[in-house]
Write a structure and sequence with these properties.
five-stranded parallel sheet; YtoQ family protein (chains A, B, C, D, E, F, G, H); YtoQ_family_protein (chains A, B, C, D, E, F, G, H); homooctamer; alpha/beta; Rossmann fold
Chain lengths: 148, 148, 148, 148, 148, 148, 148, 148
Amino acid sequence: MTMKVYLSGEIHTDWREQIIEGSKDLDVAFSSPVTNHAASDDCGVAILGDEPNKFWHDHKSAKVNAIRTRHGIENADIVVVRFGEKYKQWNAAFDAGMAAALGKSLIVLSQPDHQHPLKEVHAAALAVAEEPRQVVEILNYVLSGKLP
Amino acid sequence: MTMKVYLSGEIHTDWREQIIEGSKDLDVAFSSPVTNHAASDDCGVAILGDEPNKFWHDHKSAKVNAIRTRHGIENADIVVVRFGEKYKQWNAAFDAGMAAALGKSLIVLSQPDHQHPLKEVHAAALAVAEEPRQVVEILNYVLSGKLP
Amino acid sequence: MTMKVYLSGEIHTDWREQIIEGSKDLDVAFSSPVTNHAASDDCGVAILGDEPNKFWHDHKSAKVNAIRTRHGIENADIVVVRFGEKYKQWNAAFDAGMAAALGKSLIVLSQPDHQHPLKEVHAAALAVAEEPRQVVEILNYVLSGKLP
Amino acid sequence: MTMKVYLSGEIHTDWREQIIEGSKDLDVAFSSPVTNHAASDDCGVAILGDEPNKFWHDHKSAKVNAIRTRHGIENADIVVVRFGEKYKQWNAAFDAGMAAALGKSLIVLSQPDHQHPLKEVHAAALAVAEEPRQVVEILNYVLSGKLP
Amino acid sequence: MTMKVYLSGEIHTDWREQIIEGSKDLDVAFSSPVTNHAASDDCGVAILGDEPNKFWHDHKSAKVNAIRTRHGIENADIVVVRFGEKYKQWNAAFDAGMAAALGKSLIVLSQPDHQHPLKEVHAAALAVAEEPRQVVEILNYVLSGKLP
Amino acid sequence: MTMKVYLSGEIHTDWREQIIEGSKDLDVAFSSPVTNHAASDDCGVAILGDEPNKFWHDHKSAKVNAIRTRHGIENADIVVVRFGEKYKQWNAAFDAGMAAALGKSLIVLSQPDHQHPLKEVHAAALAVAEEPRQVVEILNYVLSGKLP
Amino acid sequence: MTMKVYLSGEIHTDWREQIIEGSKDLDVAFSSPVTNHAASDDCGVAILGDEPNKFWHDHKSAKVNAIRTRHGIENADIVVVRFGEKYKQWNAAFDAGMAAALGKSLIVLSQPDHQHPLKEVHAAALAVAEEPRQVVEILNYVLSGKLP
Amino acid sequence: MTMKVYLSGEIHTDWREQIIEGSKDLDVAFSSPVTNHAASDDCGVAILGDEPNKFWHDHKSAKVNAIRTRHGIENADIVVVRFGEKYKQWNAAFDAGMAAALGKSLIVLSQPDHQHPLKEVHAAALAVAEEPRQVVEILNYVLSGKLP
């Protein structure tokens, strides 16, 4: 039983690396968005031509990135969405909404002080974790039946 | 041609009333979440019993609210998502993600200083407006073919 | 906003009547299985001819009943499944599984001593109630935004 | 022609092992829920933190288990559901309902004295067997065309 | 509870009229193919121009008829397929296959001497009747819960 | 039996009026894109603000128009696509592709000298007509069973 | 580009072998029903127990066979349905109807004197051939672009 | 992460070869229609028999080609549609419409002077490029996260 796992959300800490490293003995195939912030912001104009207007600059990049992110979410069995400490992170919540509507198993990785504003997202999740280690433990349990 | 429009997001200003009032001569059926903040927060425990733990208090309410919000989104032709000035508003972005995944026509109502963090949501939208009046104008155009 | 509600499960008490009576001022359209136990058991052979073998006797009836129950579940916005005190009630759990797989909003009406064996069904539900009155309150809240 | 088979239901006898052993020469990929009863009951709190309330204790575990069981059912070609002699087994009937709604080929493994309460589940099945050996024979026939 | 019923198959006897007449007090909306044999055979060339080749003559008509028959089947809750005494009737079996694949409730109306060659179609049906009266009784039972 | 018909394509002749007038006694609900060329081209900037770049000017309008056209196509039973004598008409072919992928009954209205370049579109259609009168005759036949 | 091809229909001549042999150098994965007539007729009772009534004898077998045939059709890219000279062959037309409803590419292999009664099936097909050799040529062209 | 990319549209220049060559180090599986113009035009009659009428000559070929093109589009993650300088190219726009309706990531490769008539197709695309090199850069970025 191979599990395909998409790792969505916050790109400023090493939570993806922790999960991937912790799951290295499991039959899991991970995918994720481009996590290079500058490349992600500029891919549209870098490839398809400059835009003087910031809206269209961002629009072109968001659409090119969507080729990757939608593929990742649509092909995943499990979508893990991480909410970090900073920024608006509406793209993370947007991905969670897509995952829920597509019937994916949703795991949310968030911190206690975000509990109230995340209640609708949590309500759609099959697990709410606070630490990357817990996500590894879930994957390990789901695949092997073994508890930590 | 009747249009079913779901009005998602910010509940602290009268943007819904403006749109509904402005569209009163159009063949539109509006739906929306419960916009009474206190009722929305407490519906779960008020009906199904108290929870000492805030997580489960919120969880019960979020699920009861989901009965209404998912019905609204799944049955809509158009989903309008309003991002206001304050709060995390992850439920708004979550609704936008659901709408996009379900193939609904998405209209985002947001302000210019939120342009960058909303770029992924904007990229999935068929229109990005700043004023409720513009949403009315879109509905009027879509239904009657008339421009303001 | 009309809600279509299918009332599945236990047929030996008046819980359906309580919910329908309590919701008489709401914009709800209820449907349910045939609750006449004898008719439900014998409809197949009564219409399509006797079967000496009990398996096929039951099989013919179960399939004729399925014409009605699947129509009810597939067309519902909300599926309420009631587990009573007695009997195996596997058809109730089967209906709950169908409702979950079809993305319906599931409300379970069950008693506390069934909590553990119903945990998988509860986990798929948006509300777990113990009294028909609570289902009425949920419907009232979902439609009107008003708490009891 | 590889067949993916999910083995749902009763976890107290060796029926899964009998089927897997009997099918060892067939091109079948089996999956199943976690069958360690204690791990299955406690996985939620063991990984995500204790819950004093038994409802939420069970709820957390049921959701973590759902990551595995839904993956198994959704990816299966055939879902075998075994009803044993004891317990409520509503999760087995729930899985059967999901399998039916998702259009999976459903095989029910049950005993004669459960015939009447299982009639709705049997009516949705493509085969009703009493012995694990018969499930092996079905798999063998479906894959090789050979009868026992 | 309104039921939409599509009446497919044999067009040489008055079985449709019997069912419609017998169901006149029920909340059923019937649809059917064009049962004027000559019009059905020639509609393509009559409207879209002659074809010297019989294959294309028939092809044009079969496609124009498909506009009606697919609409009927796709919008039905119940598809009744009648196999008569004569002719190949492959279009009836084709309609039954479409109905089965679309998850419609299938009722087959056939005679005993066709039992063996219809076994695959019967296996996909929720009822196998021999007389139009029985179809009326099923519709009556499904809608009212009353047995004959 | 009501039929919902979407009239896509060429906007420079009165073919839509001919079909609507000719079908006035039939139970048909027609929809169509905005056929005011100037409004259709400028709706985006007129409502949502000017764009100096022609690409984004057109982009905004095309997306606002898509709210109406996708609603029309997705809700139609039949999609009629008219190819006229002039212009690229890629939007007409695009609509035909959407209709085909969504399983709609497609009727193409085109002229003989476009036969070869339209062969892939014709191959997906249930009827290929040259005159609006023929579309009326098809609708009349499909609804009433009567030939002209 | 691998093509999955299901070979449905007549089981009394070697048409399947001809197609498989002719396609041996192509990247095609074939599947088919059990073509051993006796095994196919008796698989149900041989595995699941005798039935004195011929209807249920056939019913049990038809359902066991459906596990294989539905898997084959649902997983195919192309469904080839062969109509032979004899028998009612309603299962072949039923399979064609399923294939059409599921959006599979349908190839019909039939003889000229069956043209009229097969017109509805032909109208749903992407190719109508008379010889197994032509099916091989289609597969070869579709995969390699080469004509015979 | 393997990407399946279908290359639709213009067949008179070497744009496909440029993209495939430029992507040779990426984990991409390309598919495309038959690009031999003569074979594509004549495949129907070459395999299935002559047609004196040009419409049916083209019809037979278009349907045989559809076996390949629909397989390519339905199985693709990304559909690239190239509009060249000449011809009507309605099949390209038709493919783009299918891709959009099926939720594929659409990349359009077109030239500036076609901007206005392609606005509806562009509005459905996640990227609009002018050079094959840009498509390669998008694929490289989507797969590796690296910008040119």
